[in-house]
Design goal:
498 residues; alpha/beta; 7-stranded mixed sheet; binds nicotinamide-adenine-dinucleotide; Ald_DH_CS_GLU; EC 1.2.1.19; aminobutyraldehyde dehydrogenase (NAD+) activity; Ald_DH_C; Ald_DH/histidinol_DH
C-alpha cells in the first residue's frame, strides 16, 4: 500500500520497474462511500508519459523475443502472486470504487486472476495458416509478431478487471505497455504493476501513468512512439482517443458505452426475468457497460414485470460497501450522482413514470437508490442515453418484430438479453439483435474464454478470449522462392521480350 494522506504524496506512476517521481499536481483518491480521501498522489504529466513510453520502447525487443513459455511462466507467476495478495486487492478496489466487498471478492478480483491465468496459457497458443506451397514456386509462412508498444487507457468502474483485460493479452502477445488508469481509481492498477515486477516481469514491460484525461490521456493516445492504442471508456472520449491516435495512423481498439436491452417475451419465466433484470440493472450500482438498462416487455406480462421489479428493487440494500450484506454501494463521485439524478428527474417530463427510487439515502457518500422508470418514451433521454447508474427503464412491445425493432433502436451494440422458453424465439433474438453479446435467460455473466466487445457506438475489437490476443499481434507473410531461378516464371508478365 502507498502512503496515506498526511504523509508524503505517493507515486502515481510505475515506470521502468519502479515507482516513478512524477511532475504533476497532487491529487486525492476519494472513497465514494465516505467522501473522504484514501490517499494523495503526485500525478503524471506529458513529460512522464514520454519517459514511460521510452521505457516500454526500450523493453520491447527483449520481451517480444522471449519465448511463449517464458512469457507464460511470468504471467502464471503473476496470477499466483495476485492470489496471495487478493485480500489487499479487494480492499483497494472497495476503497477506491465503493463497490460492495462481495462484488470485489467474488467477481472483480477472482475474475481478474482467472483472466491472467487464461492469458498465461494463451501466450503459448498463437495461431496462423499452415506453412505450405500455395504457389508452386514458393513456400509461404505466417509469422505472428507483437504489435509493439501499447498505450492503453481505462475507466473507473472495474479498475482492476479493465486493466487486466487490456494488459494481459498485450503481454501474452509480446507487447510492452503503458497504461493510464482513471485518476479516480488508480490504486489496483499500480498494485498490478508492482505484483507483475514481483512475478519477474522485466523492467519497462508494464508501465503505469496516472493522470487526468485531458493532459496525460491525450498525450498517451496521441504519442508518436506507440504502435497501438486501446481504450475502455465512454463513447465521447473513445472517439477523441481514436482521433488522437489517427494523427499517427496508430491501430486502435475501443470498448465504449452501452445501453443494453433486456427483452422479455410472453412465454418467459417472469419471476426469473424480474430477478435477472434487477440484478443486471444494479450490479456495480449500474456502472457497468453491459448493465440492463432498457427492459422491453411483452404487453401481457408488462404490469406484473413492472410491479415485480419495483418490489425487488425496494428490497435492495444500499449502504456500507464493507458490510457483506450490502447489495450496492455508492456511485463513483458527487458529480456523477448529480448527472444520474438529473437525467432521472427529467424523465417524468418526457413521459416516464417513476415506480421506485429516484432518491438518495441519508448517507455520507454518493449513494443512489435503485430506480425503475416505466412507460418511458422511445425518444426519452433516459431511454436513449447511457446513464451509468442503477436505473432501469421499461417499455411494452406488441409482437416479436416490434420487440426486436425496439432492442435494435439504439446507437450502441455492446450487450443484450432475451428471455423466452421458445428455442426458435431465442435463436431469432440471438441472430437479429445487434450486440457483441446476447444472453438467453440471463444477463451479465462473462467468462475469460469468450470475447467481450461491441458494435456501433460501443466500439470495435475484443477484450478477453483468444480473439483479444489477435488485437495485439501483427500478421506477417513470409514468401520464399524455392526455384533458385533468376529468370522466374512470373517475369514473363513484366518482360515482353523474354
Ligand atoms: P471516460 O471515457 O470518461 O474515461 C475513461 C478514461 O479516459 C479515463 O482514464 C479518463 O481519464 C480518460 N480520458 C478522459 N478524457 C480523455 C481524453 N481526452 N483523451 C484521453 N483519455 C481521456 O469513462 P469513465 O467515466 O471512466 O467510465 C465510464 C464509461 O466507460 C462508460 O461509458 C462505460 O460504458 C464505459 N465502459 C465500457 C466498457 C466496455 O467494455 N465497453 C467497460 C467499462 C466501461
Amino acid at each position: 500500500m502507498f502512503d496515506s494522506v498526511g504523509g508524503v504524496s505517493a507515486p502515481s506512476s510505475w515506470i521502468n520497474g519502479r515507482p516513478a517521481v512524477t511532475h504533476g499536481d497532487t491529487h486525492r483518491v476519494i472513497n465514494p462511500a465516505t467522501g473522504e480521501a484514501i490517499t494523495e498522489l503526485n500525478l503524471a504529466t506529458a513529460a512522464d508519459v514520454d519517459a514511460a513510453v521510452a521505457a516500454a520502447r526500450a523493453a520491447g525487443p527483449g520481451w517480444a523475443s522471449s519465448t511463449p513459455v517464458e512469457r507464460a511462466t511470468v504471467l502464471a507467476k503473476l496470477a499466483a502472486v495476485m492470489t496471495v495478495n487478493s485480500d489487499a486487492l479487494v480492499a483497494e478496489e472497495v476503497a477506491q470504487t465503493g463497490k460492495p466487498v462481495r462484488l470485489a471478492a467474488e467477481f472483480d478480483v477472482p475474475g481478474s486472476i482467472d483472466n491472467v491465468e487464461f492469458f498465461a496459457g494463451a501466450a503459448r497458443h498463437l495461431e496462423g495458416k499452415a506453412t505450405a506451397e500455395y504457389s508452386a514456386d514458393h513456400t509461404s509462412s505466417i509469422r505472428r509478431e507483437a504489435a509493439g508498444v501499447v498505450a492503453t487507457i481505462t475507466p473507473w468502474n472495474y479498475p482492476l478487471q479493465m486493466a487486466v483485460w487490456k494488459v494481459l493479452p498485450a503481454l501474452a502477445a509480446g507487447c510492452t505497455v503503458v497504461i493510464k488508469p482513471s485518476e479516480l481509481t488508480p490504486l489496483t492498477t499500480l498494485t498490478l504493476a508492482r505484483l507483475a515486477a514481483e512475478a519477474g516481469l522485466p523492467d519497462g514491460v508494464l508501465n503505469v501513468v496516472t493522470g487526468r484525461g485531458d493532459d496525460v490521456g491525450t498525450a498517451l493516445a496521441g504519442h508518436p512512439d506507440v504502435d497501438l492504442v486501446t481504450f475502455t471508456g465512454s463513447t465521447t472520449v473513445g472517439r477523441k482517443v481514436m482521433a488522437a491516435a489517427a494523427v499517427h495512423g496508430h491501430r486502435t481498439q475501443l470498448e465504449l458505452g452501452g445501453k443494453a436491452p433486456l427483452v422479455v417475451f410472453d412465454d418467459a419465466d417472469v419471476d426469473a426475468a424480474i430477478q435477472g433484470a434487477v440484478a443486471a440493472a444494479i450490479i456495480n450500482s449500474g456502472q457497468d457497460c453491459t448493465a440492463a438498462t432498457r427492459a422491453i416487455v411483452a404487453r401481457d406480462l408488462y404490469d406484473d414485470f413492472v410491479a415485480g421489479v419495483g418490489e425487488v428493487m425496494r428490497s435492495v440494500v444500499v449502504g456500507d460497501p464493507l458490510d457483506p450484506t450490502t447489495d450496492i454501494g455508492p456511485l463513483i463521485s458527487a458529480a456523477h450522482r448529480a448527472r444520474v439524478s438529473s437525467i432521472v428527474n427529467r424523465a417524468p417530463a418526457q413521459g416516464g413514470r417513476i415506480v421506485t427510487g429516484a432518491s438518495t439515502p441519508d448517507l455520507p457518500g454518493y449513494f443512489y437508490r435503485p430506480t425503475l422508470i416505466a412507460d418511458v418514451a422511445e425518444t426519452a433521454e433516459a431511454y436513449r442515453d447511457e446513464i451509468f447508474g442503477p436505473v432501469l427503464t421499461v417499455r411494452p412491445f406488441t409482437d416479436d418484430d416490434d420487440a426486436l425493432r425496439q432492442a435494435n433502436d439504439t446507437a450502441y451494440g455492446l450487450a443484450a438479453s432475451a428471455w423466452t422458453r421458445d428455442v426458435y424465439r431465442a435463436q431469432r433474438a440471438s441472430r437479429e439483435i445487434k450486440a457483441g453479446c446476447v444472453w438467453i435467460n440471463d444477463h451479465i455473466p462473462i467468462i475469460s474464454e469468450m470475447p467481450h466487445g461491441g458494435f456501433g457506438a460501443s466500439g470495435f475489437g475484443k477484450d478477453m478470449s483468444a480473439y483479444s490476443l489477435e488485437e495485439y499481434l501483427t500478421i506477417k507473410h513470409v514468401m520464399s522462392d524455392i526455384t533458385r531461378a533468376a529468370d522466374k516464371d512470373w517475369h514473363r508478365i513484366i518482360f515482353a521480350k523474354r
